[in-house]
Amino acid sequence: MLFTIISIAAMVGLDQFTKYWATAALAPDRTAPFLPGIMELRYVLNDGAAFSVFSGKAWGQWFLIAVTSAALLAVLYILFFQRARLDRLGYAALLLIEAGGIGNLIDRVLHGYVVDFFATTFVEFAVFNVADCFVSVGVVLLAVYYIRSESAAKKARQKAQGEQAPGSGDGQ
After folding, report:
1. Among 15, 107, 132, 170, which one carries the catalytic annotation?
2. 10 Å Cβ neighbour count for 69?
3. Which of 87, 107, 116, 170 does the annotation list as catalytic?
4. How far apart are alpha carbons 142 and 147 in whole angstroms?
5. What are the Cα distances from residue 104, in Å, to 81, 135, 151?
6. CA nearest to 94, candidates 114, 116, 117, 77
7. Cα–Cα separations (whole angstroms), residue 138 to 69, 112, 115, 124, 134
8. 132 flagged as catalytic
9. pLDDT reported for residue 152
10. What is the pLDDT of residues 59-73, one digit of tens each?
11. How much is the average pLDDT of 31-44?
12. What are the backbone angles phi and psi of residue 46, rounded to the nearest 5°?
């Protein structure tokens, strides 16, 4: 449990530090090269969700805060009370999702927007931040975890069905 708390706190701290840095170094409209030809640093305030969904909607912030809070509470419940059901991949996925969600929730609650600063230059894409990276990687890992878990469960079911074939010692 302590490792979970420390891990989440460290990732949230990294996210908040990078947003503070971006605000101090890039606000209001500066850009800086990061990975030439791939990515630049560009200060953007996002009052919406991913890809600016709900942007500019007065009710959008409250909706995002409520939905994010509910999801984060559900993930915390799993991390603290259902941990034994997860393997390392599932655990890591949920840690990343939790930390990223908390990082962006802090911004929404305190400021009414999220600071984004990673901007791709090779393709038109949404500007994003460290918390978004945590959530995105966490979701991909969670999908891999789920697919892997379902595959293992299917193999176990097939094996169990093979062992219960007719005449396999059922006492008749």
Report:
1. 132
2. 15
3. 116
4. 9
5. 24, 10, 33
6. 77
7. 17, 24, 20, 23, 6
8. yes
9. 85
10. 677 888 999 999 999
11. 94
12. -115, 110
Phi-psi region at 56: left, alpha or beta (left = phi > 0; alpha = psi -120 to 50): left
Tokens 């097939």 -> residue:
158
Q: Please, what is the average pLDDT of the chain?
A: 90
User: How much is the pTM?
Assistant: 0.85
Q: Is the Cα torsion angle 10, 12, 15, 21 positive or negative in sign?
A: negative
Cα gap 138→98, rounded to integer Å: 9
What pLDDT score was predicted for residue 161? 85
State whether residue 33 is helix, strand or coil: strand
Q: Where are the domains of the chain?
A: 2-162
Query: Strand, helix or coil at 115?
Result: strand
- 1: pLDDT strictly greater than 90: no
Q: Is 116 a catalytic residue?
A: yes
Question: Does 48 have pLDDT greater than 90?
Answer: no
CB 136 within 8 A of CB 81: no
Across the strands, what pairs with 118?
A: 41, 128
- Mean pLDDT over 122-126 rounds to 91
